[in-house]
Design goal:
This protein is α/β, with parallel strands linked by helices and 449 residues long. It contains 14 helices and 17 strands. The protein has an 8-stranded mixed sheet, with helices on one face. 52% of the residues are buried. Pfam families: Amidohydro_1, HutF_N.
């Protein structure tokens, strides 16, 4: 049993002072407020709930910064994708584990305590299945075990290069499954999970999955989360309309059982009707604004969507920069740049932009990854301790803390992080960072030689 005492904490019922959290068995056993620290209490500054990272491709952390050179005048997402295909061509399961572990350590250091790994790198270098269909899923589980981050594993079904069942391209050979092979992959992946892990499925996109395949694989989720890329690029929207007469999100809302179990990743290019339909569905929009900015994707209509009480989560996607506060900040800043106004995502009920973003991402992220979240008795002991002595947080109280962390502080404000009741970050640094960084560097030396 652990007892943690905080000067301030954002509990499920709101902000409170002088808070003791008692942890046992990976859960918060009890919450006391207005109490003095006791002799057995570990004392900290400010407590907020850990966040869920709804969308990660862990292996892409290894190519962060390697695609920032202009290759052609019309450099875009599609040219970046070719760089990514080349990077993964030599990657072994051990490389995947080493690179993903660094991404997960950085997530914990920034305040993410659970990750949704949208895992599509299933096949060997030649495109064949490993003897163990879940060989690389095991690499993901190993990375989460080494770092201590909670895991929602989302094996990806990927069968085609474009809408209408177009045959896959050579660069996609490590992703490809058929329905029977994917069923075996799901069974093998389930067998690798640890206590507390969650599994769902991820039909990659309507580009990669036919309508018939989508219907066939949905039961394999067995009640778990369902994640899908949707409407990230205007080219994708145009191609979907040419194929089906409908936009991607429009097609999903009309032809798939989209509900609270679903998370539509990006959903960047949606019109007013799709905004209303997605918000009404109860699904989560999985926003990855740092990656979306890096790839030149576009701007999600967050103001209109949140006005309709649409649900959001945040993800780090390509892991070009791993920082929970940066993702939240970029959601608001993209709206400011688009609308040329300030404090756009505050509202009458919640004037604090930081609180509205954090609260939305906390609730929506947990929903998207199939878990519970918050600082309350019975909840997972996923806790961020912010450094109350950090200059960005000086003299801050309640919602001002979140505003200042997100817009003026960032990862440097994070002092300690507990995931499942185990302290994985201390003094802003993951407890195993040295060994994780060394393995990562060795893998990159080989892959970039």
């Amino acid at each position: 049993m652990q007892r943690l005492w905080f000067t301030q904490a954002r509990l499920n019922g709101g902000w409170a002072k002088d808070v003791r959290l008692t942890l046992a068995g990976g859960l918060i056993e009890s919450v006391e407020t207005g109490v003095a620290p006791g002799a057995g209490d570990e004392r900290h500054g400010i407590a907020i709930p850990g966040l869920c990272n709804v969308h990660s491709h862990g292996f892409q952390r290894g190519m962060a910064g390697l695609s920032e050179r202009r290759g052609r005048p019309d450099d875009d997402f599609w040219s970046w994708r070719e760089v990514m295909y080349r990077f993964l061509g030599r990657m072994t399961p051990d490389d995947i584990a080493a690179i993903t572990a660094l991404a997960y350590a950085e997530m914990l250091e920034s305040g993410y305590t659970r990750v949704g790994e949208f895992h599509y790198l299933h096949n060997d270098i030649g495109g064949g299945r490993y003897a163990d269909p879940a060989e690389t899923a095991g690499s993901i589980v190993a990375a989460s075990e080494e770092t201590g981050i909670g895991l929602t594993l989302l094996p990806v079904f990927y069968a085609h290069a474009d809408f209408g069942g177009t045959p896959p391209a050579p660069g996609q050979r490590r992703f490809i499954s058929d329905i029977d092979g994917f069923a075996r992959l799901m069974e093998a992946s389930r067998a690798k999970l640890r206590k507390g892990d969650v599994i769902g499925i991820a039909p990659h996109s309507l580009r990669a999955v036919t309508a018939e395949e989508l219907a066939a694989i949905l039961p394999l989720a067995e009640g778990g989360p369902i994640h899908i890329h949707a409407a990230e690029q205007t080219k994708e929207v145009d191609a979907c309309r040419a194929w089906s007469g409908a936009r991607p999100v429009e097609w999903l809302l009309e032809n798939a059982p989209v509900d609270e179990r679903w998370c539509l990743i990006h959903a960047t290019h949606i019109d007013d009707v799709e905004v209303m339909g997605l918000a009404a569905s109860g699904a989560v929009a999985g926003l990855c604004p740092v990656t979306e900015a890096n790839l030149g994707d576009g701007v999600f209509p967050a103001e209109a969507y949140l006005r309709l009480e649409g649900r959001i989560g945040t993800g780090t996607d390509s892991n070009i920069l791993v920082d929970a506060a940066s993702e939240l900040r970029m959601i608001e800043y993209s709206q400011r740049l688009h609308h040329r106004r300030r404090n756009i995502l505050g509202c009458e009920e919640t004037a604090s932009v930081g609180e509205r973003l954090f609260g939305g991402a906390q609730a929506g992220g947990a929903q998207a990854l199939g878990v519970k979240s918050g600082l309350a008795a019975g909840m997972p002991a996923d806790i961020i301790a912010l450094d109350a002595c950090h200059p960005a947080l000086a003299a801050r109280k309640s919602d001002m803390i979140l505003d200042s962390w997100i817009f003026a502080g960032g990862a440097g404000c994070v002092d300690s992080v507990w995931a499942g009741g185990v302290r994985q970050v201390e003094g802003g640094r993951h407890v195993a960072r040295g060994a994780i960084t060394a393995r990562y560097a060795a893998a990159l030396e080989r892959l970039t030689a």
